[in-house]
Amino acid sequence: MRRDPRAAALALGAHALTWGAVLAFPRALSLPGGLPLSLPGASGVPHAGWFNALAFVLPGGALALTAWRARRRLGADASLWAGVALRLWLLAALLFAAQGLLPLDPNELDAGRSRAHAAAWTAWALAFGAAAVLSAAALPGRRGSAAAAVAVALVWTLATPGVVDRLLLALWSLWTLWMAWRLPPRGV
Hints:
Helices cover 71% and strands 0% of the residues.
């Protein structure tokens, strides 16, 4: 299978932005560990807009572009399930970006305005898991996606609240990088 280094570079850049923001902002703001991953982007937190742009919006947009390109490269002869898998990847990327547009309320992490962010996060994780399952079943050379789907399900059910978001983000990063590197050639 032909590799697409431009797509992989775009995905790598997207994840570098996310991980850079996720690691740098809490440290710069002196936030304690174990808090929600997106807390530096909460309303009223200094530089929250920058955090949301760098951690969610720009990377989500870049990954959406990567997923859209992957779907276009499949061509008209692609199976229905392959098309659905790549559309779910696109949906997951857009939901990832939406998390930055729907910031948390630091005074009500489980209620109020934070509900929209939480809904986007939950929908992102579900779309990501479904995309991994379908890509494993429908796309040639993507059998490793099954491992990502199983890992998403295990993390979702077994991890503690302070850890689940970081583990899902790590799985998302690895899976999207792998998918971007292994973009299908036209007509597969």
